[in-house]
Amino acid sequence: MTQETTAKFNIDTVANAAVTPEVELPWAELGLKQNEFEEILKVLGRRPTGAELAMYSVMWSEHCSYKSSKNHLRQFGAKVTEEMKKDMLVGIGENAGVTNLGDGWAVTFKIESHNSPSFVEPYQGAATGIGGIVRDIISMGARPVAVMDPLRFGAIDHPDTARVMHGAVAGIGGYGNSLGLPNIGGEMVFDAVYQGNPLVNALAVGVMRHEDIRLANASGKGNKVVLFGARTGGDGIGGASVLASESFDDTKPSKRPAVQVGDPFAEKVLIECCLELFKHSLVEGIQDLGAAGISCATSELASNGDGGMQVELTSVLLRDHTLTPGEILMSESQERMMAVVTPENIKAFEAVMEKWNVEYSWLGEVTDTGRLIITWDGEVIVDVDPRTVAHDGPVYDRPYARPSWQDELQANHFNGSAADSERPATSGALAAAVTELVSSPNMCDKSWITKQYDRYVGGNTALAFPDDSGVIRVDEETGLGVALSTDANGRYTYLDPFQGAQLALAEAYRNVATTGAVPMAVSDCLNFGSPEDPDVMWQLAEAIRGLSDACMELSVPVTGGNVSLYNQTGTTAIHPSPVVAVLGKLDDVARRTPSGWREDGQAIYLLGTTADELDGSEWANLRGHLGGVPPRVDLKAEHTLGEILINASRDGMIDAAHDLSEGGLAAALAESALRYGVGARVSLGEVAERDGVDLFTLLFSESQARAIVSVPRSEEVRFNDMCTARGFAHARIGVVDSATEALEITGVDSLPLDALREAHEGTLPKYFG
Amino acid sequence: MTELPLIGSAAVADAPLSGARIGVVTFPGTLDDRDAARAVRLAGAEAVSLWHADTELADVDAVVVPGGFSYGDYLRAGAIARFAPLMGKIVDAANSDAKLPVLGICNGFQILTESHLLPGSMVKNDHLKFICRNQVLRVENSNTAWTSDYTQGQEITVPLKNQDGQYIADEKTLDELEAEGRVVFRYVGFNPNGSRRDIAGISNAAGNVVGLMPHPEHAVEAGFGPETAGEFSVDGLGFFTSVLSQIVGGK
Fold first, then answer.
1. Of the N and C termini of chain B, which has fewer Cβ atoms inside 10 Å?
2. Interatomic CA distance for residues B146 and B136, integer angstroms
3. Would you give the DSSP letter of residue A646?
4. Taking CB atoms and an 8 Å limit, are B230 and A174 in contact across chains?
5. What is the pLDDT of residue A250?
6. A667 phi and psi, to 5 degrees?
7. A180·B72 Cβ contact <8 A
8. pLDDT, position A279
9. Are residues A188 and A237 in contact, defined by beta-carbon separation less than 8 angstroms?
10. What residue ranges of chain A have pLDDT lower than 70?
């Protein structure tokens, strides 16, 4: 399957580079800094060839090398106890971490960003975000089983938000639905800070048997290197047009799109094809092609293996025969994989490719030279130590300092502010406030989005949006499964990055426990502004320190993730947005706890205590206030609450549970009622007195480590005893009562469910059609 | 690699008592094949995997053409899949005296219309978006191979999820379908895609071939399908028990 013709270029060979040190190279245009270029000269002992420069420039980019965050990210690996390592089969550094589920099962999950492309071209940007994260999961040897999408867009009424919303949601649906992966949850936050920098994060989860875990390394001299899947085209080459100087051909397009274009059908076939390769143990190592394409795959496979690799670049199947070697190395064309195959398995490998009609080409082989050598028609154009490309990139200790404005920001509390002067107090005003809250952009019903996603495919979805976590069955015989939740609060993190990151973890942890699952592992997507701004760098450093501390305290290790920097327009950065995904385990997904009330007469309990913590809350946001300090973090309380929720679910003590987070108790009560259209009578006087807060504060404060549960009458004694034994605040606040057809809260005007639903569900259709 | 038991469990892997074999076709891009196989097994039959490139029907007693995006559906839903070698066999068997029962779900329905086993066609939803929802259907004909376990006029709830689900046909064809009782399912309460006359599913004249856009195979197991107030619908199981009754009865 060789090319019909080999394009002829004025090839910049290694031999040529050695004798022409004076040639000017476009390193600055490729995004390299002076010191980085000098480092490349030192590493090679000569000037790089055009192809080598292309490789170094993409692999040493912030996106691929984590050069600004690496020094801080080390904490995720360092703050790990033996207990946390117990179930970690593969940790940070591989395509995705792997966690032991028991019974021979393993689960792998990871969250990544696809922010910038999704702003430029929302449909393709969001679609290929799904594609990329799913290939990471396949690379580990797993069958992908579900996806989730945390989204953060600009103000709901800004004209450009509709463009991003329609495009990104259709892209996620169009790609994910075509892969046969249920979309089981995510987030949707609107805030003007994301106007020019929407956040489109994507999470994928996969499952496998322990013996099927695959790693990205090229071992065994003489083993063959193969590239398969889609052909390589000119899409996704950032800034590579400067390499056109390599070409004799002036007729080629001068500017290529920097956003990749996805083909979900090709990806679906690639998934099934890879799983068949794994089933017959036909690959020694495998790596997906994402950012930095072949540059990344060859250098990572080679440096993670035990030697070197030799690759003939003209063997790469192309969509566009005018691509230069540098462009081929940098192309981010989607739906491609690279694998290492023993000579004995070549025939069997090819048979699988033929069965699925997947194109492939043998590029070269594993060597023991310790060098990555890439040739073009036999002439050496790359000769490097692969480690210097993949792992030994620059690392920066960027200066950081607490912003000068942070103290003033934190001193500006909501309580006592002008925005707080008309705090609702009458029963009518409180009812209006609840309705306003549940119809607000961030708290409204998100089914306008989620009904565009297939939640059923696979037949293993036990819970999905709008429940607290998505729950997927892994083993049909035993019911063993996983729960997943992603959370972040940019406002909290802006007010206090250390605590904000901890609160993101606390909420995701709580959401997972709320469905009855035991939290096991964490993946994070750290979305921040420019690391070259000391203020932003401080936010990043504080967030990582806070998150890594909290992970250790809650005993849930970070198994992988991604950092997305430079999310800013001009000098204005987004709110620091560490999106935290927590994965939990359920021994039997049939026991999972949904968020809605069902049975009349069940008692509703509020777990946890409430303080006046409205700073950074949704209510303050609705009143245009952002200042003060976020709700207090209490990880011990989160842990105890988690234990209560998990035990109560396992022992059949509760029928419904819903965590309290954004929007506080008011939002939780409304959501639990609307979930199945079953109302309740609620009285909060005693709890307000116990906690020393007024009714408004009790309803709208966002104090942490709280949840509401519904308890069958027969289980009340046992449930009370369990909470008492653990010393955790619990109070009976009401009773499920479908006859009311309303949410009746003493001191608040009756909230008929029909009207509440209309308010809750009307917002997104109003803005987006 | 150990194959994941996404296609059911070892406990039911043994040939079921009924002895019935129901084929489930996989094309490149098929998505709901595991689900269809699970539904077949839960109904008590043996699910037989059929590959689009196969040239024999492997002695199956019935065939399910499941949902998905065969060949990406980039040209027109089902337009390429109909040319698969196995489809020729299925068309012949469905039209033969033996009247092989064939069920097309979603993309499978689209493939059956492209194959001319069923009249009409599906175009993009009238609102132009993908839609996933729990859909109420009315069984308009309980005398087909796939609906005999339902009662005439019974309302069932199954998931619906598609992009190109708007059923269209010319007025004459629609009138004929109505007159001959070949409108098998109609959308109730809400027409999710602009289908003519609220048609969700139809059959051929003999009643052995049925196609519909909604997904009965996703409403076969409590805990994993459409739910209302916490109650799960397993209404879809009737499709598979219906055909099983016919197969077993005919043996």
1. C
2. 18
3. H
4. no
5. 43
6. -65, -40
7. no
8. 92
9. no
10. 1-9, 238-258
Say how many CA atoms lie within 13 Å of A342 toward its Cβ: 7
Decide if A708 contacts A660 (C-beta within 8 A): yes
C-alpha dihedral over A225, A231, A233, A235, to 10 degrees? Answer: -100
| Residue for token pair 């359920």 | A586
Q: Which pLDDT value is given to residue A238?
A: 56
Chain B contact probe: residue of A456, A475, A598, A738 with most B CBs at under 10 A: A456
The H or E element containing residue A745 is: strand A742-745
pLDDT for the residue numbered A257: 56
Task: Supply the pLDDT for residue A262.
Answer: 86
The reply to whether B215 belongs to the active site is yes
Write out pLDDT tens, residues B43-98: 999 999 999 999 999 899 999 999 999 999 888 899 999 999 999 999 999 999 99
Report yes or no: A301 and A341 within 8 Å, Cβ to Cβ.
Answer: no
CATH class of B21-250: alpha beta
Q: Which residues of A246-273 are buried (b: 16+ CB within 10 A; e: fewer)?
A: bbeeeebeeebbbbbbbbbbbbbbbbbb
B190 touches A: beta carbon within 8 Å = no
Catalytic: B127?
no
The per-residue pLDDT for B8 is: 38
Strands B21-26 and B62-65: parallel
Residue A494 known to bind ligand? no
Whether residue B113 is predicted with pLDDT greater than 50 in this model: the reply is yes
Structure-token pair, residue A428: 């009518």
How far CA B160 is from CA of B76, B200, B214, B233, in Å, comes to 19, 10, 4, 13
Taking the C-alpha atoms of residue A129 and residue A180, their distance in angstroms, rounded to an integer, is: 16
Burial B107-126 (b: 16+ CB within 10 A, else e): bbbbbbbbbebbbbbbebbe
Contact A476 B6 (CB under 8 A): yes
Question: Known catalytic residue: B132?
Answer: no
What residues in A contact B124, CB-CB < 8 Å?
Answer: none
When pLDDT is averaged across residues B173-200 and rounded to a whole number, the result is 97
Contact present, A350 and A360 (Cβ < 8 Å): yes
- pTM reported for the whole predicted model: 0.94
Marked catalytic residue, from B46, B114, B217, B218: B217
- For residues A340 and A270, give the distance between their C-alpha atoms in angstroms, rounded to a whole number: 16
C-alpha distances in Å from residue B243, one per residue of A543, B44, B64, B182: 59, 11, 11, 17
Looking at beta carbons, which residues of chain B come within 8 Å of A278? Answer: 1
ipTM: 0.93
| Pair type for strands A707-711 and A656-659 | antiparallel
Q: Which domains does chain A show, CATH number per domain?
A: 594-769 (3.90.650.10)
Chain B CB contacts of A268 under 8 Å are 28-29, 31, 69
State the pLDDT at residue B251: 55
Look at residues A106, A458, A448 and name the one whose alpha carbon lies nearest to residue A271: A458
